[in-house]
Write a structure and sequence with these properties.
glutathione-dependent formaldehyde- activating enzyme (gfa); binds zinc ion; 154 residues; mainly beta; three-stranded antiparallel β-sheet; seven-stranded mixed β-sheet
């Protein structure tokens, strides 16, 4: 188990019921502007960073998960509602946490942007960073093709 590993980054929800740790340096800090991430965080984009799932552990409590689509799940605290993670179900997919839920968000400066097709016109903070539209590469297109969204639009 993870008891003897030294975490390099820790975080958790607002109320403290859920805590997590990474045991390897964080990688891939990015903003995702897609509509699902906007809805999932209640923010104007999701700020996410992560690592390989084997270097991640829940260290207190059990989060609830919402399958935001047929391909991915998002964890949140059932007590206080803090959005905590985003992860594709596919094996080897990175476990991403919300940068704002880290104890030290300074560890994860955003390096790139995804989902820029839904970026709000007045969100200017990371202009100049590399950007990608959802499904821009053929590999991602193929990966996302079978996706069924679980977003409701009333
Ligand atoms: Zn909580
Ligand atoms: Zn997104």
């Amino acid at each position: 188990m993870s008891e003897r590993r030294e975490p390099v980054a820790t975080g958790g929800c607002q109320c403290g019921a859920i805590r997590y740790a990474f045991y390897a340096p964080l990688e891939g800090a990015h903003a995702c502007h897609c509509r699902m991430c906007q809805r999932a965080t209640g923010g104007v984009f999701a700020a996410l960073v992560g690592g390989q799932p084997e270097n991640f552990a829940w260290t207190r409590g059990t989060p609830k998960f919402f399958a935001s689509s047929s391909l991915a799940k998002r964890a949140y605290c059932a007590d206080c509602g803090t959005p905590l993670t985003f992860k594709y179900d596919a094996p080897g997919s990175r476990m991403n946490v919300t940068i704002g839920s880290l104890d030290d968000p300074e560890l994860a400066p955003i390096e790139s942007q995804m989902g820029v097709e839904s970026r709000l016109s007045w969100v200017k903070f990371c202009e100049g960073l590399p950007e990608e539209r959802t499904g821009e590469s053929p590999e991602e297109q193929a990966f996302l093709a079978p996706m069924e969204t679980h977003q409701r639009r009333d």
